[in-house]
Amino acid sequence: MKPARQSGFVRGCLIVFTLLAGTIMIGQASANPVASNTIPVGHTSDAKTFEQSEQIYASGNYEQAVTILQDLASTGNAQAADRLAMIYVNGAGVPADPQKAFQLLNEFATKGDSPAMARLGRMYQYGIGVEPDISKAVELYRKSVDNGNKEGTAFLAVMYRDGIGVPKDTKKAISLLESVATGGDTASLILGDCYKRGCGVTKDLNKALQFYEQAVKLGSDDARDALGKVYRDGVGVKQDNQKAFELFKQACHKWNAGAAFDLAYMYRDGLGTFKSQTLFLKMLQRSADQGYPEADHALGHLYVDGEGVPKDRRKALDLFERANRFGWAGPANDAGNLLAYHEGIDGKRDYNEAFKWYLKAAEHDSANAQREVAEAYRTGRGVSPDAKESTRWAAKSTSQYLKEALAGDADSQYWVARAYERGLGVPTDKLEARRWYEKAIAQGHPHACNQLAGLLFSLRPVSKKNYDVAVAMLRRGAQNGCPFAQYNLARRYDLGSPGTRKSSFRALYWYRKAADQGNEPASFYLALDFKYGYGGVAKNIERATHYFEIAKRDTNPATVDAATKELEYLKRELEHHDGNK
Predict the structure, then answer these.
(1) What is the rounded distance in angstroms from the CA atom of residue 223 to the CA atom of residue 256?
(2) Contact 344, 382 (CB under 8 A)
(3) Which of 248, 472, 473, 488 is a plausible cystine mate for 263, CB 3.0–4.6 Å?
(4) Between vectors from CA 297 to CA 410 and to CA 265, what angle results, nearest 5°?
(5) pLDDT tens-place string over residues 216-266
(6) How far apart are CA 543 and CA 386, in angstroms?
(7) Contact yes or no for 139/145 (Cβ under 8 A)
(8) How far is CA 487 from CA 414, 429, 482, 549, in A?
(9) pTM reported for the whole predicted model
């Protein structure tokens, strides 16, 4: 399992809150750290101490920085309280405590601190540390605007742009943003995103670049990060990885976790700098330590696969849970996969717990999770069977997949084909299923060949032409590394099915290929080969035991039961053998 380098979730509810598809950090330092109508920092020594805490935090000594910020906040330092609230939201340097962050911001907002009002509005909008309350969020944004707070004005503008809690009014949104963009890094950054994506304005990459650069001049590290992406991806400018690298590096000089995440992948891929797995892991860990959800998610996948770190599925689950703590669907779906497939956690699958995670992700519109929820209700795996609920979730999933499939996404085309083949949320239509499988195959989908083969084998009346095409699809899928195609091809060679000539040697070859990728049915038959010495392999009880153990993880109770009995038999054989020594 590997996450996309940049998912659709961008700085939503942890260090940053989603505005459009751009990024705004809670408590992001601006060019003027104490915004208008902010409660004064207090003494010059306070200001120096705050700057020291920033430097200490940037060095990775989170606990010491938090202690300094707590002392400053207790004396009424609003800037320290603002930074501390962000740390409590993220769980960086202290255990994550969104409720404590809410209380801290509420305390200062009640005293009239307008930046705290704006940030408290974000807490209410996204339900962080408090129940979601859009009306209260809008009320707080308006209060911060009345007190001249530019960030609050930018947040309110986004509500008008998206029609959240207020009537949708893109003209008013852009007007509000433009009214504070000159001296407001947040508004400038949002305007840059608006022009980059054509949100409420005509798409204009030159203007987007101008507003990003303006936000950078005003001190926004988020804008440096956004500008770095522009140069990395060559959006409206000539691609310049070296410039992108420098911008990411500048942005995370203090503690911009999103920029640290982007910088990590520059090191991993050697873009604008040298390749370094060590620095990739270091920057990714730094981003995760500072509470960035995508870093937690990415690290989780590294621990699943054992890439650059020890393989540790339990630690991966902990990281997915941390990444999901404010509702992102991706990690919740991956947590479900971790619990429901392969060896599960500590060698055991937990379908009940997996269902809970899938449901969380499904409720946040993950098509994959909706499909898993539908299947769970259909089979009763992890939840009581419920045909009506299964149909409802299948329809939701297929509807989402169809939109993406029409846009050309190969994975969605594959799942649309599966839906038509099995009648999941759509009427059963094998011809339509075949059409979508062929589209997915044309784009190189790894499993579509196997599924199309299965579909062709099932068509009646039996047709030699269909069988020939099906076997060709199995071979193609197997050669491309699909473990399901490898297993199915192995079975056909093992049985001498139509379209293939019986061959124990070839069957063994493909069983082994599939089993080495964790395919449970293939592992069962390979274990039999090692138990009896079939297919030209020497009898080997230890190898047979190993593969029967893998087969025990299968979701098919018959395979599990058969593998369990074989293991019991082999255990008795070994005990008898040892007793005769």
Answers:
(1) 11
(2) no
(3) 248
(4) 80
(5) 999 899 999 999 999 999 988 999 999 999 999 999 876 688 999 999 999
(6) 41
(7) no
(8) 19, 26, 9, 17
(9) 0.78
